[in-house]
Amino acid sequence: MNLINFEYFFVLTFFFYGLVSDIHTQDLIQKVTIQSNDGMRFDLDEIKVKSGSTIELTLIHTGKRTKEEMGHNFVLLNKEIEIRPFAMSVLDEKENGYVPESKEDIIAFTEVIGGGESTTITFEAPPKGIYNFLCSVPGHFGLMKGKFIVD
Question: How far is CA 34 from CA 3, 57, 60, 113, in A?
Answer without folding.
Answer: 55, 8, 6, 13
